[in-house]
Amino acid sequence: xxxxxxxxxxxxxxxxxxxxxxxxxxxxxxxxxxxxxxxxxxxxxxxxxxxxxxxxxxxxxxxxxxxxxxxxxxxxxxxxxxxxxxxxxxxxxxxxxxxxxxxxxxxxxxxxxxxxxxxxxxxxxxxxxxxxxxxxxxxxxxxxxxxxxxxxxxxxxxxxxxxxxxxxxxxxxxxxxxxxxxxxxxxxxxxxxxxxxxxxxxxxxxxxxxxxxxxxxxxxxxxxxxxxxxxxxxxxxxxxxxxxxxxxxxxxxxxxxxxxxxxxxxxxxxxxxxxxxxxxxxxxxxxxxxxxxxxxxxxxxxxxxxxxxxxxxxxxxxxxxxxxxxxxxxxxxx
Length: 334
Hints:
By secondary structure, the chain is of the alpha+beta class. It has helices at residues 2-14, 20-27, 31-40, 45-59, 62-78, 97-100, 102-120, 125-132, 135-146, 157-161, 191-197, 220-237, 266-271, 284-292, 307-317, and strands at 165-168, 171-177, 206-211, 245-250, 275-276, 281-282, 323-330.
């Protein structure tokens, strides 16, 4: 429990104490609303029933109610402020069912306001639907990694519920001012290099962060369709007059993959879309977690069924490290 107590302490330190209205909003949430909302975003019935059955115990626990009310209020108050930092906390699984379902309750409480914000910003209905139906995917990831019902990782809901991350086609797109939002790529070009490269590369320039969901369709045709639709939708939702980059930072952009994968593979073709920086950080844990959907498993116990799995394990067993490398492309087609 010490681990989860530390996480809750971090959350308490970051979040303001909730107002009376926010606390009442949480306490007044009905189980029927939870069920209706989670069914709308296609959460499996078995999971939905478990979440709903925990609500009565949760809503009568003053500490949980206060923490949830604080986070709901923070999400609502920062919605639209893309420069507000997104806190990256560990999940609350060690706190039992109320901890594992905490982010389900957050999602339900913020769902209507997030959808309305996107609609008012010109987001098409099908994009709102694909954005908000990320729940089942993250429930599946949690089950694979931890063998229990939950949402993995919980903090990933925050940019979605603030209305600054949307799912279009195969990818998620995140509105961010370069070098300001804390999901912006890091390391990036130095100030001198950014100034020399010009508009689009400087701190504060508008950009679009690209995130790759688990099991995303990365075939060239799928990505061509995704980027074409994203340029159409985001050009209307988040219009800019300056050059705008799309950035990505991922093990998928690690040049070491060229030593293991066929150059015609989807991953390598995805990587070649980007201009890669000569900078990165080691990212073994996230790489293993993404590919194998397991945590705390020894390397020798992980499967070697695919060329990618074999590549990841071979490099690690030789003492190497996988890297989260940043890259960019011209989003608006300049």
